[in-house]
């Protein structure tokens, strides 16, 4: 549990004090999307298929700390520092670095005992993280387009 508490504190402090490059609506929309996507995936892979999960099978109260304390902050930090104007290679390195970090963190969470694998394997996570980060980037682009094209309601 120590890893969970330290993670929640560190990521949220980083989020609070980082120089913001995104607007409030961009942070809010993408964080809400990240939490909803995470819930859908966990509903299928954790509760339905029992491939992995948090703490113990079923829904645990501590799970809400993971949902609210980690996912929004990680999403916001990832998107805030993404280098839109850099080369394709730099973008790939950025996504790759975050994916490696996520796999290492998942491995630590398993070792710390607040995350477990049944049928799921760490190499599957390594395959899944890059597309998930790309989806977050796509959602941010969509939010920016929607905000730019929005028309006030009379």
From TrEMBL:
Swiss-Prot/TrEMBL keywords: Membrane, Transmembrane, Transmembrane helix
Residues that span the membrane, as ranges: 61-81, 93-116, 122-140
Top-rank taxon: Bacteria
Protein name in the entry: Uncharacterized protein
């Amino acid at each position: 549990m120590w890893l969970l508490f330290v993670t929640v504190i560190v990521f949220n402090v980083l989020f609070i004090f980082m120089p913001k490059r995104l607007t409030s609506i961009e942070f809010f929309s993408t964080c809400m999307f990240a939490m909803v996507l995470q819930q859908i995936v966990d509903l299928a892979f954790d509760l339905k298929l029992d491939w992995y999960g948090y703490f113990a099978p079923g829904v645990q109260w501590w799970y809400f700390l993971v949902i609210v304390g980690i996912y929004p902050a990680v999403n916001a930090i990832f998107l805030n520092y993404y280098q839109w104007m850099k080369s394709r290679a730099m973008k790939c390195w950025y996504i790759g670095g975050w994916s490696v970090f996520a796999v290492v963190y998942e491995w630590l969470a398993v070792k710390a005992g607040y995350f477990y694998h049944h049928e799921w394997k760490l190499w599957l996570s390594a395959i899944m993280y890059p597309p998930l980060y790309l989806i977050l980037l796509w959602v941010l682009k969509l939010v920016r387009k929607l905000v730019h094209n929005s028309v006030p309601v009379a």
